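Worked Example 4.2. Read the sequence first, then its structure tokens.
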Amino acid sequence: MLLLETAAKMFNERGYENTSLTDLADALGITKPSLYYYVRNKEAIFLGIFEITRSALLQAADEARLNHSTGLNQLKAFMTTYMDLTSSDLGKCVIRMNSIVLSNENIQALKEMKQEIDAALVGIIRNGVQDGTLSTLSPKIAASAIFGAMNWLVFWHNEDKRSDLNMIKEIYLETFLKGLEKTP
């Protein structure tokens, strides 16, 4: 995990293309051959970061569905966890590295993993529409709007103002939850 966390931090600070495996080995205090014992290449590191993030998000969606009785509360729980995760180095890395060049095989795997996360949020929104706590003409479009807003936070939020992040998360929650909440 230390390897992936260190790599995510370096990818965020320097960029994926500007971070070499030598840089990563130096930051970890190991030799480059030792690093190759654990990973094949930089692409495998990024995929490992993405897999950890994907697993955490799918677990968050499952927990939201199990621990909250309404779609509205499920959505709030999932969005809160999503924003917490994507404000970490691992989450930021996944969001920021959308444009890296991957092999065709890994592009397809990444696409399928993203579809799982999309489906989880769409499912939560559908739950809310079915139980009458949310209202939308299209759960898929609502999910895309929510992901777009939450993902963009990684690009414009100034990390030096970390205390503002909690306020921003609350505003996002209020905006989306009130916007989707079904009113009598």
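Now turn to a second chain, presented in exactly the same format:
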Amino acid sequence: MYLLVGLGNPGKKYEYNRHNIGYLAIDNILSSLNEYTEREKFNSIIYETKLNNQKLLLAKPLTYMNNSGEAINKLINYYKITSNNLFIFHDDLDLSFGNFRLKKEGGSAGHNGLKSIVNHIHNDFIRMRIGISHPGSKELVSNYVLSNFSSYEKKNLNSILNYISSNIEEILHEKEKFQIKFNFNLEQLEDKFNPLEKIIKLFK
């Protein structure tokens, strides 16, 4: 049995925050499934389905980001989930928007959700690190992660999440050995569609 957990904060206020990309990833995976059941238990929304006749659980903790470990600890103990079958989907400041990486073990890198998980269980779970880019200064991080994706990022977010969803079977089986073949270069696209550049061209 696999358990996929998306980190985020509950409520409409946080729905499209960068910090909620884990929630959004789970929602996207669910949209690609034919059927699943939903219930609330262990301070989480739990979704249950099957993938190739194997039980698959997806969850969104309702404890808010900083206490994610409390809910996840209850989930893995009740469902007897091994660390090798626990996947945590979360935002990552150290990866630029459009990039993502699978990684087993490691520290929290200042991420309060990961810090809570490590404090409650262990650190040898699988992480799906989904890049949100860094605002450039440590002082800006808190407001940045709790702000919404830009309209441009929102337009491209589905492409990233759709790729993860369409490859979820391979991701679960290959884990950190999964070869990501997704080429999304936001910087190049921004250069191509730079509004200022369009304005300048009007005066040439």
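Notes for the reader: The beta strands are 2-6, 37-41, 44-51, 54-61, 86-92, 100-104, 126-131. The radius of gyration is 18 Å.
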